[in-house]
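Hi Q.,

Before the meeting this afternoon, I wanted you to have the cobalt (II) ion prediction in hand. No need to reply - just skim if you have a minute. The sequence and ligand are here:
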Amino acid sequence: MASTFLKEYDKLLARYKEMIVLRTAGDIVYWDMETKMPPSGLELRSEQLSLIGLINHKMLVDPKIGRSLDALEKERVLADMNEEQRRNVHLMRKYHDEESKLPDQLVAEMSKQQILSVGAWKRAKAAKDFSQFRDHLLKNVELKEKAANILMEVKGTRTPYDALLDIYEPGMTTERISKVFKGMRDGLMRIMKKVDSSDRPDTSILNRKIPVSAQRRISAVAMRFIGYETSGPKAWGRLDETEHPFSNGYYTDVRITTHYHEDNYKSSLFSVLHEGGHALYEHNLPAEWMFQPIGSAASYGVHESQSRFVENMVGRSPEFLSFILPKLKKAAGKVLADVELEDFVRAVNMAEPSKIRIEADEITYGLHIIARFELERDLFAGRLRVDELPQAWNEKYSRYLGVDVDNDSEGVMQDTHWAGGSFGYFPSYALGNLYGGMFLRKLDRDVPEWRDAVAEGNYAPVGGWLAENVHSRGNLYDPADLIKVVTGEGLNIKPFLDYLKMKVEMVYGS
Ligand code: CO
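Predicted structure with the ligand bound:
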């Protein structure tokens, strides 16, 4: 690359670095709000967060970035760049254009409306009355449609909903997901038919009371197992307690939270593994890519594949459970003394249709997501009206899960996503499961001894494989390409379905 262009490229990266530094400062301000802030600080805090957002927006839409990009995107310049440099330029162009084309007024209106909608959603949910939420949801959808129409132009997608999907899962389309999810839906429903509900595992062993202090010791064991370091001079993480678990951070400082329920110890154990899986991804991104666009996760779906891999594929495996059960018994005192490993494995892996997504097991979870995807897709294609949502929701739950929804609070109003304006987000969760299934199959082939290692408390073969194959590739590829590079094939539902079939056989016999 000619040196003048190299200078332009360095200038571009220097600007990106400033944005990352500001954004990660914002992460800590947010983290503090959730973990430490006294209640009266809320108003000041929201001012602080929105100013950080505004400054970040202004930095990203700066016309100087557009001019740098114009200079770098000349064919002969691009030809001189390596793959990483080209990808950085591509990502900067995408971020800059998308942020620039949305009118400030629309962005402001959306964020104001989302706050109002979330407020209305909370009240309506408490009152079990969709009519109190309806107008706000409608407004959210209308504003999102406006934004999606603009983004469709910038991104060059076929439909407005494709543009929303692209925010979370770059390159993914409605057509592709519809096809994949249809196969997944049929497959999951077939697997659920094999679940013998008369042979229900005794899950009461998971609800025995274990004091929070003991559960904290179990969290420490789980974090040590996956190599999430929270103490010593090399620590790069910490665990705090919040209402809803989350993770946030970047490379050298990635934090997680959990919530302890005395009568549900598995909740904190698996949430620590889940958030730890997210954290390891951020931490293991290539050091030399820090502060560059490629030094980030590939997508929401890939992020979720990493958290679910640790939580489910490793965490709910008989091997990990055989490792952790004695530790649980030790931490819990006499409470779990009589629990047999086989019963524990069956209880943790029990599958049963339910109405609430966040309580769903690994098998039915996908059906919750697919129902939401189909509703969103039809909503943005003009085939479904907001008024018809509750009824359409209940019909899908009856058909796919065989459950009767009694009221809209446990139906269409159970999640905060639509109230917060996040349309197109849900599919990432199920895609994460599918990616995870594909990674698992490849791991089984590459490092078959990983299960024995996990049983002995050794996570290194799994952690090393994920770091080398997924984390080390950062945002060098769109998710569909990343999957192909890692596994050698395109998105495929079979590995995940095979994995679930194996689970059902393990828990319920064949
Ligand atoms: Co997650």
